[in-house]
Each structure stands twice: as C-alpha cells, then as structure tokens.
UniProtKB/TrEMBL annotation:
Pfam families noted in UniProt: Glyco_transf_7C (PF02709), Glyco_transf_7N (PF13733)
The name this protein goes by in its record: Beta-1,4-galactosyltransferase
Keyword check for Transmembrane: yes
Highest taxon in the source lineage: Eukaryota
EC number, UniProt record: 2.4.1.-
Species annotation: Sinanodonta woodiana (Chinese pond mussel)
InterPro entries in the cross-refs: Galactosyl_T, Galactosyl_T_C, Galactosyl_T_N, Nucleotide-diphossugar_trans
Length: 383
C-alpha cells in the first residue's frame, strides 16, 4: 500500500514536472518570438525618433529659431503632417487650376471676406504651406511691420487663401522693429531676407506692405527674369475716374518680387532711411544702376485694395529723405543687404524674439538708429 502511494505520488509529480516544462518552453517561445522582437523594435523606433528629433532640433537651431521654440515640439509634429499629406512628385501646372480672377472683397467685412477655414487649416505653424505637387516657386513673403495688428491679421488670412490657390510653397515672415527706433522699411526688408535665407532655400522674395490686399488672384507671387513690381493700381491712389491708380510712373512700392540673385545684385535696400519716405525710390535707383528694371503684371491683374489707416506716430516723414536719395548710387556699394554679412561696414542688430505664430513667423529686431546714422553719415546727402 505504502509502495503504491509512493508510486502514484511519483507519477503525479512527474506530470507536474512535465507541465512545468511545457510552460517554460511555451514562455520562452513567446519571449524569443514575440516579446523580445517587440521590445527591440520599440527601442529601435524610439532611438530613431530621438535621432530624428535631435536632427530636427539642430535644423531648427540652424534656422536660428529661438530657444523657446526649440522646446515647442508642436512645430515638428506640424511639419510631419505636411509629409503625411499625399504629395505628388509632379510639378504643379504652369497655370494653377483653381484661380478665380478678380476678387470680390468688401472693405466693410474684411475679416469675414478673407477667411476661408479650409485653406487656413492647411497652414503649418509659422505661416508655411506646401501644395500637393512640386511648387514652381518657393516664395518668402516678408512684411516690414510695426503696430498694425489688425492689418496683419487680415493680410495673412487673405494671403493664405490666395497663395494656396496659386500652388506656391511659401512662408510668411513678419519683421518687426522694436521701439524706440523710428520705423525703417528698407532695413526690415533686408533683415527679412537674411532670416529667410537662414530658414530655407527660397527662390523668390516678396517684400509686402501690411495694408495692401491683392484683388486678383492671377497676380502670381512668383519672380521673373527682372525684378517685379506687382502693383498696377492701388485704391489708395484712386482718382475721380479710376478706382485703382499709381502715384507716379516710376513708383515701385507696396509689393515687389525679386529672386535672391536680383536682390543681391542691387545690394538690397538701403538701411539708412529712418522714418517715412524715400527707401523705395532709393531701391529703384539701385535696381537701375546694375542694369535691371522693374516690370509689372498686366494692368487688370496687379490690383490692390489699401486698408485705410491713420498715420503712424513712430514713422514721421523723414525730412532728410530727398537729400539722402541723391547719394543712392554711392551708398549702394557701401551699405545694403551686404551690411548684414562679413563686411567692414557691418550693421549690428539684435534678434529679440522669434516666434512661430499660427499664420506667420514673427521676428522682433532691435537696431541702434543713432549708431547706423553716424556710421553712414559721410555717405549720405549729395553725391
Ligand atoms: N509699417 C508698419 N508700421 C508702421 C509704419 C509702416 O507696419 O508704423 C509698414 C507696413 O507694412 C506699411 C509699410 O510699412 O504697409 C509702408 O508704410 P507707409 O507708412 O510708408 O505707407 P502707407 O501707405 O502710409 O501705409 C502712408 C502714410 C504716410 C503719408 C505721409 C506723406 N504722404
Ligand atoms: C514719394 C516717396 C515714396 C513714397 C511715395 C508714395 O514721394 O517713398 O511718395 O507715397 N519718396 C520720397 O519721399 C523721396 S504715398 O503717396 O503712398 O504717401 O512711397
């Protein structure tokens, strides 16, 4: 009896032992075949992602975005959502198919009339967009700016609506000059180009007034073989019998388009026009001096509506502007976009802030007005 029991218990523990072996065997198969590869894979993915983030952080740093933005990974996520979009590898058509021509925008309901939720939804943080085909132009819109928040809101929405129809790859930069310095449109345009160059390889720069709204979407924001003045008429210069006008024949302000090479060739804008007036005429002299000329689109295409506004208190008329204009050709060789690169006559400026806002990239800069004026005084005035 005792022997029988002992025998039974032996066979029981044997089957327990066998069951134990089966469990160990199955567990090791699951571990080796499923768990380990999954852990390994996720570690691998994590490592890749962290490399990617590191790389993108570096890129962002190179693009001279502020430290606070480096921590804002929403930018990166947004960037990838572009990649996630079904982008075809075909060049966009020469004539964008969705254009509507003359726009019906009312000055009364500007805010509503320039809001198209669908197109705004496709704007990536920092005011960037990429069409579903390979864009024919990579355009940087540069807006010299101070204290016109309402205009900026209207203009940027308006541009996003239209530039997407134009199938451009673009980004909007708003370059603001900090107080107490007087406004300086030319200097801000130059700094905008410096910032845009650091950010990407744009094929076209558009220097854009904040209060000018394009009224015909056939006015493509592209560059050409000559610098382009995209305005054939503005409501600001309306006359009794003309809804849109220009103040004088050689006027080339408001909205202009130049390639990087054209901008460099003219040495960009002058930096010495603090306050209102003259910097645009000076730029026109520069363009002519190096054998280029401004060309305009068709008469009925380059139409702009001006958003009415009061005069700006920090942009008083510059009483010296006409005298300064006389030395345009002399200063062209000395100061301009070249002043922001290694140069004996380098201009120092500070970037106080750079922010990726929803519809544009905002850069706040500071310069020493008295310092710049002193630096170039001997080249100003009569040539
Ligand atoms: N700008 C600002 N803030 C300012 C001043 C200028 O954002 O305080 C920018 C803005 O992009 C504007 C552009 O610079 O569209 C040109 O400004 P402007 O003042 O030269 O031109 P605007 O036609 O006003 O808007 C003209 C009023 C001054 C008339 C003086 C003599 N006729
Ligand atoms: C010229 C100014 C330009 C200015 C244009 C239009 O006289 O800077 O008027 O001004 N040139 C000089 O002062 C040398 S506007 O009519 O828009 O006020 O753009």
């Amino acid at each position: 009896m005792g022997l029988q029991r002992w025998f039974n218990s032996l066979s029981n523990s044997k089957s327990i032992f066998n069951a134990f072996l089966v469990v160990i065997y199955t567990a090791s198969i699951i571990f080796v075949g499923v768990i380990w590869p999954a852990v390994h894979e996720s570690r691998y993915v994590e490592e890749k992602l962290s490399q990617l983030l590191k790389y993108e952080r570096k890129q962002l740093y190179r693009n001279s975005l502020s430290d606070s933005n480096l921590d804002d990974l929403s930018n990166l996520v947004a960037e990838r959502s572009i990649d996630g979009h079904n982008i075809s590898f075909e060049l966009c058509p020469e004539t964008p198919p969705g254009l509507v021509g003359k726009l019906n925008i009312s000055i009364k309901n500007l805010k509503e009339s320039v809001t198209n939720e669908a197109s705004l939804a496709r704007v990536v943080y920092g005011g960037r967009y990429q069409p579903d085909c390979i864009a024919r132009e990579r355009t940087a819109i540069i807006i010299p700016y101070r204290d016109r928040a309402e205009h900026l809101d209207i203009l940027t929405r308006h541009l996003h609506n239209i530039l997407q129809r134009q199938q451009l790859q673009y980004r909007i930069f708003v370059i603001e000059i900090a107080l107490p310095t007087q406004f300086n449109r030319g200097l801000l345009a130059n700094i905008g180009v410096v910032v845009a160059r650091e950010s990407s390889n744009f094929s076209c720069y558009i220097i854009h007034d904040v209060d000018s709204l394009m009224m015909n979407d056939e006015n493509l924001y592209r560059c050409g073989s000559q610098p382009r003045h995209l305005v054939t008429g503005n409501t600001k210069y309306a006359t009794k019998d003309k809804e849109y006008g220009l103040p004088y024949k050689l006027y080339m302000s408001g909205v202009i388009a130049l390639t990087d090479a054209q901008y460099n060739k003219a040495n960009g804008f002058s930096n010495v026009y603090f306050g209102w007036g003259g910097e645009d005429d000076d730029f026109n002299v520069r363009v002519a001096k190096v054998g280029m000329r401004f060309v305009r689109p068709q008469e009925n295409v380059g139409l702009y509506m001006a958003i009415p506004h009061e005069n700006d208190s920090s942009n008083p008329i510059n009483p010296a502007r006409r005298g300064t204009l006389r030395s345009a050709a002399v200063r062209q060789k000395i100061e301009g976009i070249s002043s922001f690169y290694k140069n004996k006559q380098k201009i120092n400026y500070k970037r106080y802030a750079i922010e990726y806002r929803q519809y544009y990239t905002w850069v706040l800069i500071g310069v020493n007005e008295a310092g710049i004026t002193q630096q170039f005084e001997k080249y100003m005035g009569a040539a």
